[in-house]
């Protein structure tokens, strides 16, 4: 692989990881309970992740 292709695949991998984390961050609380708006989804996911982290640390 050329250097250009390596860089491109590296960026694609980083983007995929970011999208996966975003889906996990916003998706799990969305599945766990119904939400009405985007801000509520964000607030619930922040609360849910803080609760999860506190529980296991």
Strand content: under 5%
| Helix and strand sequence | HH
Number of domains: 1
Distance between the termini: 43 Å
- Given as residue ranges, the uncertain stretches (5+ residues, pLDDT < 50) are none
Label the structural class.
mainly alpha
The residue-averaged pLDDT reads 77
Radius of gyration: 16 Å
Number of strands: 0
Number of helices: 2
- Helix-residue proportion: over 70%
- Please state the overall shape, judged from the principal axes of the Cα atoms: elongated
* Main beta sheet strand tally, sense and closure: none
List the topology elements.
Layout: H1 3-32, H2 38-56
Helix pairs in contact: 1-2
Description:
- This protein has 57 residues and is mainly α.
- The protein has one domain.
- 86% of the residues lie in helices and 0% in strands.
- α1 crosses α2.
- The chain is elongated, with a radius of gyration of 16 Å.
């Amino acid at each position: 692989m050329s250097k250009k292709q390596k860089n491109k695949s590296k960026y694609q991998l980083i983007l995929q990881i970011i999208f996966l984390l975003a889906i996990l961050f916003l998706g799990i609380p969305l599945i766990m309970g119904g939400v009405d708006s985007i801000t509520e989804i964000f607030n619930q996911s922040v609360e849910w992740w803080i609760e999860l982290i506190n529980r296991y640390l």
